[in-house]
Please model this.
Amino acid sequence: MKRLTASSFARRLFKSNSDHAHSQRSNESMEKPPVITADSFDSKSPKENRENTGSYDAVNIIHNHDFSEGLHLWRANCCSAFVVPAGSGYHKGITEDVGCSYAVVTDRKECWQGLEQDITSRVSAGCVYTISACVGVSGAFHGSTEVQATLRLVYQNSETSYLFISRKSVTEEGWQILEGSFSLSTMPNQAIFYLEGPSPGSDLLIKSVKITCPSFTDYESSRPTSSCTDDEKIIVNANFDDSLYSWSGRGCKVVCHDSMADANINPTSGKYFASATDRTQSWNGIQQDITGRVKRKQAYEMTAVVRVHGHNVTNADVRGTLWVQAADNLEQYIGIAKAQVTDKDWVQLQGKFLLNDSPSKAVIFLEGPPPGTDILLNSLVVNRAAKPPPPSPPVPENAVYGVNIITNTHLNNGTNGWFPLGDCTMSVKTGSPHIIPPMARDSLGAHERLSGRYIAVTNRTQTWMGPAQVITDKVKLYLTYQISAWVRVGRASGPQNVSVALGVDDEWVNGGQVEVSNDQWREIGGSFRIEKQAAKVMVYVQGPASGVDLMVAGLHIFPVDRRARFNHLKRQTEKIRKRDVILKFSGSDSGCLLGTPVRVRQKQNSFPFGSCICRTNIDNEDFNDFFVKNFNWAVFGNELKWYSTEAQQGNFNYRDADELLNFCYKNNIEVRGHCIFWEVESTVQAWIHSLNKNELMIAVQNRLSGLLTRFKGKFKHYDVNNEMMHGSYHQDRLGKEIWANMFKKAHELDPSAILFVNDYHVEDGCDTRSSPEKYIEHILDLQDQGAPVGGIGIQGHIDSPVGPIVCSALDKLSILGLPIWFTEVDVSSKNEHVRADDLEVMLREAFAHPAVEGVILWGFWELFMSREDAHLINAEGELNEAGKRYLALKQEWLSHAHGHTDDQGQYSFRGYHGSYEVEVVIASKKITKTFVVDKGDDALVISIDI
Model:
C-alpha cells in the first residue's frame, strides 16, 4: 500500500533505559530529560516581555498541596509519614517561624523512600509541566543531602519506567525550593509523582508542592467540560492577541513575538505570532487543549498560518495533529493536515478531522520539522467544516471516444508534428508492428493497421530525452484517456525502463511504463485524466539510460468509452456470476401446482465485498450500520501489522485487533489478516533495525508463532509479506529463502488460512517493478521454493482506471490458476461523479472476471482513508455519488424473479450466486422457504417441500 497517509501518525511509547527495580536505582543513574522550564510573564508589560510560555497563573495539579487536609491523597512509599500542625516547633531551627503545616517522612531505610501522589488524570502527553516544592531535611548526616523529584510511569503489562525531574542539595539550615520541569511524550496507564532522596535514616520535610502547566489557567479549569455550542470558539486566543494565553509548548518552549530576525519576519495578520523553539524532537511544537470543545461525529476544519525558521533549514514538513485520550487512557494521534513550509513566507496549513468517540482529553498541536527548527504560528482556527455544494457531473463538450489526439501517428509526413525533447536526434524508419497493441485493440475494436514506421531517437544523453508533442488544445477535462504504443530500445547492457509521461504545467504525470530488452517490441499502456485547466500539456516518451537508442511506433492517446465497456462486462457477468435454477415444489399440500404464484428474492450475493476498518471506526454507530449492511468481509488497516502489535520489543498489543475481530464475529463478517510482515524498509519499526542477523531471525520466528498461534482459525486469509515487489528488507538480511520460509511456517501454524502475496501497481501499467509478468515470475519463484502461495492480492490503489488495461493484467495472472482478490481498492477524484465512474470500472472489471474471487475497498468513510477524495460517505455520514454508485451496483447484482409454476410444479430462473428467499401462495396460505445458489455450470435443481 502506498501510504501511510494521511489519517494517523504512529507513535512510539516512552520507555526508560533502565528496567531495574526502583530500589536498585541510584540518583547518579538518572538524567534530566531535555525539557524547558516555562519563563515567567508579566501581563502588565506585554510589549516589553513577550518571550514566555504562559501569561496567567496556572492551576496546581497537586491536590492538598500544603497538607492543610493532612495526608489526604498522599501516600508514604514503604516508610512512615505524618503532618505537623502549624507552629508546633517540631523541628527546631527550620520551622520556628513558619505558620503553616508540613509533612514529615520518617522511618526511611532507603534513599528512594518518600511521599507520593497519583496525578494520572491531571496530566497530558506533550505538555511541559513545571514543579516547585518547598522541602527540608532533618537527621544524622553531615553537610547536605539531596532531595529529588521523580515520576513513576506504569505502562501496559505493568512495565514501569522512572522519569527524573530535578534534585536539590538541602541542609538542616532552612527550607529550600526544589524546581524543575517534565514532559511526557505519551501517556502511561499511571503517572505517580513523588519526592525522595535524602540519605537513609534522615527525615524528609515537605511544606508545599506545586505542579503547573502554563496553558491550564484558572479559566480553563473552571470552564464547563461538556461540549460547546457551534457558535463558541474552539480555539481560544487564536491570533495571540492575549500573548500565549491557552497555548503551551509540547515538549519545548513557546515564545510570542511582534517581529523577529531583525524585523524580517512579521505577522501576516494581527499584531503577534508565536514560535515553538528549543525543539529536540520532531513531535515538539505548540499546542492547545480543546477538551470538551469538539463533539463526536462532527467534522471540523483546522486552518493555520505557519512558517519555519532555523539554521540551514529552508523548508520542512509541518503537520497539524490531534492527540486524544479515551476514558480508558488509550491514546490516538489523528493527522489533520500536512504541508511543505518554507522560511521565506507564511503558508496556510488546512485539513479536517472527526472524532468517532468522546475523548476524555483532546489536544491539537503542530509538529514535524527536524529538531532545532522553529515552528512559527501566526494563527490557528478550528471551525465546523462547511458542507460543500453538491458537484455537478462533468459533461465534456464534443467528446469523441476512441479518436486518437496524436498528430501524425503513422508518420506519413516524416516527423511533422513531433519534436525531440532535449538535444537528441529523431528520424523515421520502418520495421515496427502493423497491428495496434492488444490493450488498445480491446478498447477500440476493429481498427486500421499501423504503417510499420517508427521514430528512432539517437544521441540521447539524458534518460528523459525522446519524441514529444504538445496536446494542450486536444485534451478535455475529466475525460479518461488511454495511452498505447509499441516501444523498443537499441543495444543496451540490460533491460531498460521506458515510459510515456505527460508534463501538465509543472506537474509530471505517469502515462505507463514497461521494461524492454534488446530486439523486442513491447506494448506500453497506461491512462491519465486532467481535472483542472492547464496552460500546457506535453506528452513524451522517455526512460532508457543515456546512450541507449529509443524507438516508438503507433502512439495513440484517445478518450475511452466506459459505457460501451460496461455493456460488454454485463454480458460477461451474466455468464460467470449467475446460474440456472429450477425450483421443484412438492408436498402433501401441493395438490395441483400449475399456475401457483412464486416470488423469488435474493437476500445476499455470495461474492465477497469488503472494506478496510480501523479500531476507532467502530466507535461510530453510523459507520457500523453502513458497514454491516453493505459488506461481508473486512481487513484491518493497521491493527494487525507488526509495528502496531509490537511497537516495542516484547511489549505486545492485541487489544485493538481483538476488539475488531469480536465486532466482525458478532456481525458475521469474514476477515483477511493484513499483514504478517511488510517488506518495505520504511515500514519496519525501529527496534527491528537494531537487530543483528540471528536476532532478526528469532524475531521473525517469534512474530510468526506468536501471531498465528494466537489467532489460529480466525483469519481466512493472510497477506504473508506485504509488497515484496517493492521491498526486500528481510530478504537482504536473512537470505533469499526467508520469503518462502515465511509462507511455509505460516501454513504449518495455521493450515486453514489461504496465504496471499499482495502488491500495488499490478493492474494499471504504471510500474515496471510490479508488472503482471514480474508478479508471475515472483509467485512461480516462491512456489519453486515450496511456498504454499494460495492467492494473489492486487491492491488496487489506482488513478483513472481503464477496463482493458485492468483486464489484461487479470488475464495474465489467471494462468497461475490461483484465486485473485482486489485487496485495497480506492479511486480518487475531487468530483464525486468521476470518482463513482472510476469505482464502477474497478468493481465491474473484478465482478466480470472469472479469476477474481473478492474485492476489498481500502475504506469508505471520509477522513478515515489513506487517500483524499476517495470516500463513499462524507465525514458526517452523508452518502455521496460514489457511495450511491456502489449501492446501485450491489442492488444490480441481486436477482429477483416472479411468475407461476408450470404443469410439473416447477419454476425456473437464472440468478446470481448467493442466498435466496422464495414465497409461494397455496390455498390462500403464504409459504416462505430459503435456499442457496452455489457456483456451477449445470442447472441447480432445488427441491422445496411445501
Summary: The chain has a mean pLDDT of 88.
